[in-house]
């Protein structure tokens, strides 16, 4: 092969890589332009902040999912886990009112309970997958059913509601913020920045990519595969707890229908953002873009009344399939 041919091939590969990297950003820009053309209220402050705040829950979870998928795993239980964490949090806070009274300390205790419950749920998934050597798909599919059933049982088939006075005190965690930016958006931004730093500039991030690319080679390279893989599920579970902390003050309740399809949205955002489904490469900022793309699609469909909102889940499923197909075609081309 001549040097000219090699240079041409490098340029072609570079263009492919750049398109793969910039593709989600271009899609996001196109959606923003489309939304603005379809509805003049699309770019209003109220609509933009509403879209960002509502996407924060999925965004926080999707960042944790990025680490899990980068390490070659999957978690189908995050939506059910969020419902269970919310239910446990609400029940514990209501039960502690006689002892602690309605106040800020009780809300802080509730937040700690949510984080610990998410941590424990993630640890359970991680141990079963890494130590017991059960396939991640089977473990998280099973835990998805367990968590959903547990919260339905705790609610006796109905809804677990936070104490009315406590709900009023807790509402600012979702509806208030700093400098006009609500707390869920701020927390999402902070988690995204930290996630990007961890993925790109720490040994843990490199280990996740190494495990997802080739587990055996990672073991030969002195990577503690079991510990790192377990840590990804623990991180995801903890972030589910954090997302639940932001979600509970929005409605003040939890039921068997809480968090339905959250796992689909989180996985879709990760894949759309460029993280390889089979592992080995992850991109946090791409996941953030993926979350925004899904949120804007949902928002545009609702504002423009193009299709029924009941079909949003179907549209997200189609987007996931297309993203995986595009990944496969890129690999084939490479």
Short description, anyone?
By secondary structure, the protein is mainly alpha-helical. The chain is 78% helix and 3% strand. The chain has a single domain (42-333), classed as Orthogonal Bundle (ABC transporter involved in vitamin B12 uptake, BtuC).
Describe the structure.
This protein has 334 residues and is mainly α. It has 14 helices and four strands. The protein has a single domain, classed as Orthogonal Bundle (ABC transporter involved in vitamin B12 uptake, BtuC). Helix content is 78%, strand content 3%. The strands form two sheets. The chain has a two-stranded antiparallel ribbon with strand order 1-4. Strands 2-3 form a two-stranded antiparallel ribbon. Strand 2 and strand 3 (181-182) form a beta hairpin. Helix 2 (45-70) packs parallel to helix 8 and helix 12 (262-272) crosses helix 13. The two termini are 17 Å apart.
Order of helices and strands: HHHHHEHHEEHHHHEHHH
Enumerate the spans where pLDDT stays under 50 for 5 or more consecutive residues: 8-17
- The coarse overall form would be globular
- Amount of helix: over 70%
Characterize the biggest β-sheet: 2 strands, antiparallel
Write the CATH fold name.
Answer: ABC transporter involved in vitamin B12 uptake, BtuC
């Amino acid at each position: 092969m001549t040097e000219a041919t090699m240079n041409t091939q490098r340029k072609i590969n570079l263009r492919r890589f750049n398109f793969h990297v910039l593709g989600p950003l271009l899609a996001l820009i196109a959606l923003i332009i489309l939304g603005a053309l379809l509805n003049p209220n699309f770019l209003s402050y109220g609509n933009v902040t509403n879209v960002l705040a509502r996407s924060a829950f999925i965004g926080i979870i999707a960042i944790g999912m990025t680490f899990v998928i980068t390490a070659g795993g999957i978690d189908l239980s995050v939506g059910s886990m969020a419902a269970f964490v919310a239910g446990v949090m609400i029940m514990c806070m209501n039960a502690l009112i006689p002892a602690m009274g309605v106040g800020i300390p009780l809300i802080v205790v509730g937040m700690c309970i949510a984080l610990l419950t998410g941590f424990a749920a993630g640890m359970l998934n991680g141990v079963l997958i890494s130590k017991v050597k059960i396939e991640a798909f089977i473990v998280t599919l099973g835990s998805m059913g367990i968590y959903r059933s547990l919260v339905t049982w705790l609610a006796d088939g109905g809804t677990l509601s936070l104490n009315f006075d406590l709900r009023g005190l807790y509402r600012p965690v979702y509806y208030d913020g700093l400098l006009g930016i609500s707390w869920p958006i701020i927390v999402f931004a902070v988690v995204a920045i930290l996630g990007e730093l961890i993925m790109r500039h720490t040994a843990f991030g490199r280990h996740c990519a190494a495990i997802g690319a080739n587990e055996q080679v990672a073991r030969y390279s002195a990577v503690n595969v079991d510990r790192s893989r377990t840590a990804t599920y623990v991180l995801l579970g903890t972030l589910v707890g954090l997302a639940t902390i932001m979600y509970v003050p929005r409605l003040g309740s939890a039921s068997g229908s809480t968090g339905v399809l959250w796992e689909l949205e989180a996985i879709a955002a990760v894949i759309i953002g460029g993280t390889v489904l089979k592992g080995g490469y992850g991109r946090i900022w791409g996941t953030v873009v993926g979350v925004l793309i899904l949120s804007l699609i949902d928002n545009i469909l609702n504002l423009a009344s193009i299709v029924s909102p009941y079909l949003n889940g179907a549209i997200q499923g189609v987007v996931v399939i297309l993203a995986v197909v595009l990944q496969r075609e890129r690999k084939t081309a490479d």
